[in-house]
Design brief:
six-stranded antiparallel β-sheet; Jelly Rolls; 2 domains; elongated; 3% helix; mainly beta; five-stranded antiparallel β-sheet; single chain
Length: 296
């Protein structure tokens, strides 16, 4: 059975990026890079579990106490009893290059998240600079039965940087990433990057890999910050609207930092107009139409 991902095996000659933040969980958008990819896992919220069985209903007469969501979402590995994660750009084909646990059980007897884990429906919430993952975790402790797979269910919370599933990284030696040909309808280029100890510059190339003046790396204002939404600007350039609907490549020159995503927004707010999973505080619907406003 062929389990290859068609859009990775044979990507389009030109890729529209009109909707959503463009993340680097795979090579779909990448033509060439000297950067290395790192997959990231969320940190466990220090006050987890945020819900645990307490009421008479939740205690279930001491048989299988539960106070947590119970529905499917990201991949569950029954062998290791860990939450894995897969990525899809079409909803049908899934890439699971990274086989490490996304949210891991403690596997320690007596802990609230000892073994069995279950993701919450909706997958995640976007809250400011972070993604919130709620999940069910089972201790296996039953007051009446002693132990049971579905006993002792509590709700945990794990937090991840927005777009932080994967980053493309450079150390003190400069590296670069050049995208495949893309088109866009926006006016303002944004990135999610951590270059507080480094630098990021961007240039835009034509179909023949020639720099489109004035969008050169030398003319780009240097980015030395750690932000999940940072606009890219060039000297004496108002925006990238002259390139709307024209096939171009973005070349990211990075030193000592991480690049998580990029997108071209029609608004100065940085709104990506991409889907936002289960939503989050400040959003007005199922897509990001407000950009930086959500951070406040």
């Amino acid at each position: 059975m062929d389990l290859s991902v068609p859009y990775l095996k044979n990507p389009p000659s030109v890729i529209p990026i009109n909707v959503g933040r463009q993340v680097f969980v795979d090579d779909f958008l990448i033509e060439h890079t000297t950067l290395h990819r790192s997959f990231h896992t969320p940190r466990l919220y220090e006050h987890s579990p945020i819900l645990k069985p307490e009421t008479s209903l939740e205690m279930n007469n001491g048989i299988c106490p539960v106070a947590c969501p119970f529905n499917d979402g990201v991949f569950y590995d029954p062998k290791d009893q860990l939450l894995m994660i897969g990525f899809s750009r079409d909803g049908f084909h899934w890439d699971r290059t990274n086989r490490h646990p996304f949210i891991a059980s403690s596997q320690k007897e007596g802990t609230w998240n000892r073994a069995y884990l279950h993701s919450a429906g909706g997958s995640c919430l976007i809250v400011g600079d972070e993604i919130y993952f709620y999940f069910g975790a089972w201790s296996g402790l039953s007051p009446k039965l002693g132990g049971h797979m579905y006993a002792g269910g509590s709700t945990g919370l794990a937090l991840l940087r927005r777009d932080g599933f994967a980053s493309l990284d450079a150390d003190t030696s400069p590296g670069s990433l050049t995208t495949r040909l893309v088109t866009f309808k926006g006016k303002y280029l944004f990135v999610n990057t951590n270059t507080k100890d480094g630098e990021l510059r961007v240039e835009i190339l034509d179909q023949n890999d020639q720099v489109i003046v004035p969008f050169s790396s030398n003319n780009c204002h240097s980015i030395c910050t750690n932000k999940t939404m940072q606009m890219i600007t060039w000297q004496d350039v108002e925006d990238v609207s002259p390139l709307i609907d024209k096939p171009v490549k973005f070349k990211f020159d990075l030193t000592n930092g991480q690049l998580y995503s990029f997108w071209v927004s029609p608004d100065l707010s940085g709104a990506s107009y991409g889907c936002i999973a289960a939503g989050g505080p400040g959003f007005t619907g199922p897509v990001d139409t407000i950009g930086v406003t959500q951070y406040h």
